């Protein structure tokens, strides 16, 4: 019926639709799908949120907005009926040649659709919805998963993902450590805790481009020196000492850590670095505006929020690598070590954006784009 209206009216009507309404319209026919493809994109990625069984959409600077949910038929109580908004035949999705017939209901509070499927599809239903949704709405199909690692038995059946966000403590530590050997994380991982004692220094986790670990109490010297990614943030570290930092910087001077952009270590309570001991081992120079920019472009990854503008490096000291002349800025306090590598001396860096904390009203500076 909508396609009998004038083109301008069609466009206005479709633009007013919710995203899930545009998605269901695009499933109706090839003509409808092509029309949806021409609509301006409001979002550029999705997130599979296993914690809340939701598909979310996001754009730079926006963490995610729920658009769809899924659940299993077994979750329906004996006296509970599911309103099948999709008709008698349901909606058929497909993932790797596996057909999944779903019934559709609507959440009474969130007012978004819920896909119901059989229990034998529980490890692929989220993937089927994700790829179908991205295909119809022409959203990037990068695979981003938000999850609790104490329920790895429900984790989707994949061998690699782009970004992972852990939103709670892990369960079995050995299973947790093996997960990162079994599944390749192509871009970023934000984890609640460091998976030890089963986590080995040569683990693939230390080769992920961007890692952010909230509880790094088990991080050791060997783990630090084996890091081979682009950026890392380790919070609440207990076993990293001043001599470990000195060795890390020396190895960088000797040509190691070819992909490194930034590493940031925050010590746990009652642990300290000896700033003078570290700095006296290196020939450090004050900022020279002719050699590098004033602001460092923090790599995209998980959100970085600080009360101070940590990327303004005009008052910090630099070290130069003899082999290629590359600069790195060294920032050390009693409880933090930050190391910024200037792979491009004059990159394009945007100013930090302020955001008010919803809980206490404090102003935080958001340093870069976010994946989650």
From TrEMBL:
Q: What is this protein called?
A: Sdz-33 F-box domain-containing protein
* Domain of life of the source: Eukaryota
Give the organism the record lists. Caenorhabditis remanei
The UniProt entry, under InterPro entries, shows: F-box_Sdz-33
Query: Sdz-33 F-box domain location, by residue?
Result: 208-265
């Amino acid at each position: 019926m909508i396609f009998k209206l004038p083109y301008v009216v069609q466009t206005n009507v479709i633009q007013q639709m919710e995203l899930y309404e545009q998605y269901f319209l695009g499933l109706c026919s090839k003509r409808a799908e092509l029309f949806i493809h021409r609509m301006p994109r409001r979002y550029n990625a999705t997130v599979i949120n296993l914690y809340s069984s939701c598909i979310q959409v996001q754009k730079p600077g926006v963490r995610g907005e729920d658009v769809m949910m899924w659940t299993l038929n077994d979750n329906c109580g004996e006296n509970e009926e599911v309103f099948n908004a999709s008709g008698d035949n349901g909606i058929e999705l497909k993932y790797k040649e596996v057909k999944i017939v779903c019934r559709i209901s609507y959440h009474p509070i969130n007012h978004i659709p819920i896909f119901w499927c059989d229990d034998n599809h529980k490890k692929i239903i989220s993937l089927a919805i994700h790829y179908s949704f991205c295909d119809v709405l022409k959203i990037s199909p990068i695979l981003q998963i938000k999850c609790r690692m104490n329920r790895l038995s429900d984790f989707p059946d994949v061998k690699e993902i782009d970004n992972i966000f852990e939103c709670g403590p892990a369960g079995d530590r050995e299973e947790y450590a093996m997960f990162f050997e079994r599944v390749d994380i192509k871009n970023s991982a934000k984890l609640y805790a460091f998976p030890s004692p089963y986590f080995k220094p040569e683990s693939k986790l230390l080769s992920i481009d961007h890692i952010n670990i909230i509880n790094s109490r088990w991080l050791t010297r060997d783990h630090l020196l084996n890091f081979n990614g682009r950026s890392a943030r380790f919070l609440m570290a207990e076993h990293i000492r001043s001599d470990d930092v000195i060795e890390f910087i020396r190895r960088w001077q000797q040509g190691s850590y070819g992909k490194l952009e930034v590493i940031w270590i925050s010590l746990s309570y009652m642990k300290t670095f000896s700033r003078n001991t570290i700095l006296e081992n290196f020939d450090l120079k004050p900022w020279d505006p002719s050699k590098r920019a004033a602001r460092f472009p923090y790599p995209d990854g998980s959100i970085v929020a600080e009360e101070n503008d940590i990327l303004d490096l005009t008052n910090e000291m630099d070290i130069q690598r003899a082999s290629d002349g590359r600069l790195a800025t060294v920032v050390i306090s009693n409880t933090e070590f930050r190391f910024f590598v200037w792979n491009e001396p004059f990159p394009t860096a945007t100013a930090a954006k302020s955001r008010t904390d919803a809980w206490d009203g404090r102003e935080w500076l958001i340093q870069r784009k976010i994946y989650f």
